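User: Here's a structure from my thesis project, written as structure tokens. My advisor, Dr. K., wants to see whether a designed sequence matches the one we expressed. Can you design one independently, without my sequence as a hint?
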């Protein structure tokens, strides 16, 4: 199961990044126009806020878990979540959480 989550984290990195890179190559490498595109209509704005709340909730949980278990590698999930997306951060956290070292804590 652990390796399935790692595969999902890799997929959650590659698949979204393909679209982000394609967009940047077509539109330029400014972040402002991309943020504007995320809010092009109510449906996309709703999705942005849904993912934002999920990213914040995951971040709070990861910080809590890292602080209470002293498993500091969990903190790697935070930049993965905000630089790539929840599609990478959440399965990466599950991969870390299912590690043999986490089971001993």
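Assistant: Designed independently from the structure alone:
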């Amino acid at each position: 199961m652990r390796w399935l989550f790692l595969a999902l984290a890799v997929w959650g990195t590659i698949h979204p990044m393909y679209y982000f890179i394609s967009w940047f190559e077509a539109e330029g490498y400014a972040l402002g126009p991309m943020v504007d595109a995320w809010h092009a209509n109510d449906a996309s704005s709703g999705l942005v806020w849904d993912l934002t709340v999920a990213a914040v909730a995951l971040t709070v949980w990861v910080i809590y878990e890292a602080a209470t278990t002293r498993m500091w590698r969990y903190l790697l999930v935070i930049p993965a979540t905000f630089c790539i997306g929840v599609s990478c951060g959440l399965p990466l956290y599950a991969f870390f959480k299912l590690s043999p070292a986490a089971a001993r804590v």
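When you compare it with your expressed construct, this may help: The helical segments are 2-27, 31-38, 42-69, 77-83, 86-97, 100-103.
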